[in-house]
Amino acid sequence: MKAIVVTDEAAGMAGMKLVERPEPQAAINDVVVQIHASGFVGTELAWPSTWTDRHDRDRTPSIPGHELAGVVTALGYGTTGLSIGQRVFGLADWHRDGTLAEYVAMEARNLAPLPGDVDFTVGASLPISGLTAWQGLFQHGRLQAGQSILVHGAAGAVGSMVTQLAREAGGYVIGTGRAADRQKALDFGAQEFVDLDNDTLEDVGGVDLVFDVIGGNIQKRSVALIRAGGTLVTVVGPPEARPAEGAAIDFVVEADRTQLVEVVQRVRDGRLRTNIGTVAALGDAVTTFNSRERRSGKTIIRVHPMQ
Fold this sequence. Notes:
The protein is of the alpha/beta class. It has helices at residues 120-124, 127-140, 157-168, 182-187, 216-223, 257-268, 285-289, and strands at 2-5, 17-20, 30-39, 67-75, 87-91, 103-107, 111-113, 148-151, 172-177, 192-195, 207-212, 226-234, 247-250, 276-281, 298-302. Strands 3, 4, 5, 6, 7, 14 and 15 form a seven-stranded mixed β-sheet that branches. The protein has a six-stranded parallel β-sheet with strand order 10-9-8-11-12-13, with helices on both faces.
């Protein structure tokens, strides 16, 4: 099968190559999925799990990518809940070969059914962004109706999901980003927008929840805005600052079939819009990832183009 591999951590995306690899086999509780579309997060190549297994052993050449939508082609021993030919989408394990390939073997529990009226490209855009938003807001942030939330990167793939889900839950959303992102963030449902280059962040006043995808000085300044009992939720590693009278939580998104079903149902009935930017074929993926152009929204790689 065709797959993109990485072997040199120092080379980053410049070291990506499109090669031929053996098709994966399904282990116990696994399925093999023929991938129709794959999502990719640019920071993956900085994750230790891209380069080593759970015992810290080198696992290169490794296949990056963890989001997928496709069709089940094989079932491992003991696998239940899915069937051959079924349309699925989900989040592949961090420490195993990923989804920038024609096939992937992964645990069945990390997949959810993809309804027939949802395009594979849309399905592949949902797992990391949708689950990160859901878990950050509701599991870790415990967002309640009437609370205010400061969403950094509100026009991005994760931030736009956070904004929409928070609005649906009755939150008041203040989005941030660059000046060029203002209208997009507002279109996704932010009620206010802070241009981090030109506006004063502190002018937003107190908030109940900060959803941080930036870190650094922006995170530190945001912490001071959190009201007593409020929460900082971040996905960029251990917080550098914590609210004086609240909680600070950093988390790594986890696969969850029930939450994936919740997210895709919202897409189906129009409550949630995806934020897809660039769509490219697998053969063009290396060039796409190495482009110096600023890309807006999620980058999706189409692998098998048929529906």
